[in-house]
């Protein structure tokens, strides 16, 4: 599997191969679903993709639903969609908090407008609903927010992972292997 894109750069005497490091932005807030945040972060890092953790505050410790912590690298106001190749939104109860930040919604809209990959799992669909980017898109989520996804214009499917253009969605933790396989394929194809 190809993990990184190689770019040619002119240098005196010929061409030199340089590696473009792909960068992903992982949103975070308290009460994220531990596996739904950590599994994607670790899979992307295994693939050689830099993952920055971004929360309301930089260098803040956020605690998952089951007590697993993670520290943010940056705050929402310190990052720009142009500097990243992909976006991940975790599940759990964090999405209900994340969608209340205008900066988060602007990031999601910017990624979508640029057709950069957006990964969302479980309750993460709430953030995409609030960003108003689901109309006409095929998506999945935890069945508990199916009505919310459909009322926002999404076409809800009961599948482990659904890809519609730049959007990759998944239902819940048992679907993580299929979700991350699909997400990595979309990220690496860009």
UniProtKB/TrEMBL annotation:
GO terms for molecular function: peptidase activity. PROSITE patterns: PEPTIDASE_C56_PFPI. Keywords: Hydrolase, Protease. Signal peptide: none annotated. SUPFAM superfamilies: Class I glutamine amidotransferase-like (SSF52317). It comes from the Bacteria. The keyword Protease applies. InterPro entries: C56_PfpI-like, Class_I_gatase-like, DJ-1/PfpI. One of its GO terms (biological process) is proteolysis. The keyword Lipid biosynthesis does not apply. Residues 23-185 form the DJ-1/PfpI domain. Belongs to the peptidase C56 family. This is Protease I.
């Amino acid at each position: 599997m190809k993990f990184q894109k190689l770019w040619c750069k002119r240098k005196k005497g010929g061409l030199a191969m340089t590696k473009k490091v792909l960068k992903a932005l992982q949103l975070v807030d308290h009460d994220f679903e531990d596996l739904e945040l950590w599994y994607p972060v670790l899979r992307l890092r295994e693939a050689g993709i830099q993952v920055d953790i971004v929360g309301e505050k930089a260098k803040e410790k956020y605690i998952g639903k089951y007590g697993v912590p993670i520290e943010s690298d940056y705050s929402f106001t310190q990052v720009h969609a142009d500097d990243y190749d992909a976006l991940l939104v975790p599940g759990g109860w964090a999405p209900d908090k994340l969608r209340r930040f205008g900066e988060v919604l602007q990031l999601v809209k910017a990624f979508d407008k640029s057709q950069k990959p957006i990964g969302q799992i479980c309750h993460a669909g709430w953030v995409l609903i609030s960003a108003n980017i689901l109309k006409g898109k095929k998506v999945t989520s935890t069945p508990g927010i199916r009505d919310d996804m459909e009322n926002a214009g999404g076409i809800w499917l009961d599948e482990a992972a659904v890809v519609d253009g730049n959007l990759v969605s998944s239902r819940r933790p048992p679907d993580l292997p299929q979700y991350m396989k699909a997400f990595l394929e979309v990220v690496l194809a860009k």
